[in-house]
Task: inverse folding
């Protein structure tokens, strides 16, 4: 005979996960309506808020997957998978997700992440060009957005397998990319 307290706890865990999933459907925007970095940030905030295991949203294919997950951890992975599948509808990456095994949140995340951060020669070349060629004008950013864009482009370059852009390189791109009204005047 099953333990009534354990059954009640399991039911409560499932109910809580279902509520979290409903909340995520409402708060995470559609990938087709936003930029990937914003979409990724929304997922990371949900993962943090609900205490997801870190491997789910890891871009490292060698990250360890839990061998004996708890019910909550299994439901976290389920929710991540369902949100990824739901919020990528209508985007090109949706076609790539057809090959993802049902319920495999980690694989779904890797497919989406690799779509935007290709760890290939082409991906690295594009990331180098995006980082070193970026300016406020080409990225259509204001000064506050520009200050956040440079480190993000450096991170994308590193994730694509390129050489990490250190603080000096980031500062150089930041200053070189300023609009004329923000450049220091020479007196």
Result:
């Amino acid at each position: 005979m099953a333990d009534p307290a354990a059954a009640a706890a399991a039911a409560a865990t499932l109910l809580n996960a279902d509520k979290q999933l409903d909340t995520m459907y409402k708060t995470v925007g559609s990938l087709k309506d936003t930029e990937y970095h914003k979409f990724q940030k929304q997922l990371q905030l949900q993962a943090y808020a609900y205490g997801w295991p870190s491997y789910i949203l890891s871009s490292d294919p060698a990250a360890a997957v839990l061998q004996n997950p708890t019910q909550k951890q299994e439901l976290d992975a389920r929710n991540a998978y369902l949100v990824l599948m739901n919020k990528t509808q209508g985007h090109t990456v949706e076609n790539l997700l057809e090959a993802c095994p049902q319920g495999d949140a980690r694989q779904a995340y890797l497919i989406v992440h690799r779509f935007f951060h290709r760890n290939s020669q082409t991906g690295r070349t594009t990331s180098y060009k995006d980082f070193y060629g970026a300016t406020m004008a080409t990225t259509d950013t204001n000064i506050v957005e520009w200050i956040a864009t440079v480190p993000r482009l450096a991170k994308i370059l590193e994730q694509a397998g390129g050489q990490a852009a250190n603080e000096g390189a980031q500062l150089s791109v930041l200053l070189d990319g300023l609009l004329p009204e923000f450049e220091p005047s020479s007196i």
Q: What stands out?
A: Residues 121-182 form one domain. The CA atoms of residues 133 and 173 lie 8 Å apart.
